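Review this:
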Amino acid sequence: MNRTGAVSHHSLLLLFTFFWGANFILAEVALYDMAPISFSVSRFALGGMAMLALLYLQCYYDARVSGASFEFIPSIEKSDWFRLIVISILGATLAPWLGIEGLGLTHGARASIWLALGPVFSIGFGYLMSTEAMGRFGYVGVILAGFGTLLLAFDGFRVEGYWLGDLLLFVALILTIAELHLIKPLARKYGAISMVAMRTLIGGSLYLVIASPSLVQENWLSFGKWTWIAILAGGAVGVGIGQWVKVRSLRKLGPTQVVIYGNLVPIAAILIAWFTIGQNPTPFELAAGLLIIIGAIFIQVIDASRKKRHKYSERDDELSVVASPKQD
């Protein structure tokens, strides 16, 4: 791998770790001016358009390099439409809607901690469905993250209103994970970029229809500059370009290195909230965030690396057996 190229990917990921963390805080500020669903669909629309444009260019570039035919929106078989519609509703309609409603009842740094649980629940779901393997370090990670979740839930009952926000964020997280597992067969069949594009178009269009009454009632000219920054920069840069940066880095660096930056988002959100709006996290939030982040690293980095080394070791053993001379 080109060393300069790897450095540029790491630099972009580090930069966007703070963008993603700031997105939670900007969203919290914007909710003082507008309804949660209005803000969510506005940011989603801008982020979706930016992401679709970048994915289109990426798909076109890949087709030119490989010499394959260019097909951004594939022809979907009738038997796959039901799954695609379900995926679109779960991931691009209900998940962002419930997520922003939950954020409106809690705060940005707390919402980012719930987001960090995503990889843990995804691995656990995959393990139960026999689509993911997990070693002993993975079990340790699940236990640590489980304790963190319990701490966060307990803290939610201590603060008035937080328990409902936590519940909505948790449901949004589960819907996102379900979407990721349901989309895998379609991504293998039609391509990941095409499926992300279709899911965004279908689910985003439905979300826009649902939010249209709220959008009409908003007094757009009265919004402050930070609300507009949250909509424009948070949508186009944080959501749209940020997702493209992640996909681009996954292809060059691999998932193990990329997920570490994703696990750092809650830390970035807590620090940004602390220095900008003076929001001090509770001891329970700090402890829960630390346990969840460490648990995710155990699952996604340590356990994944050991499984990979074990796989290569088994392959080397098989090759040595094949290469060794037979004994009479």
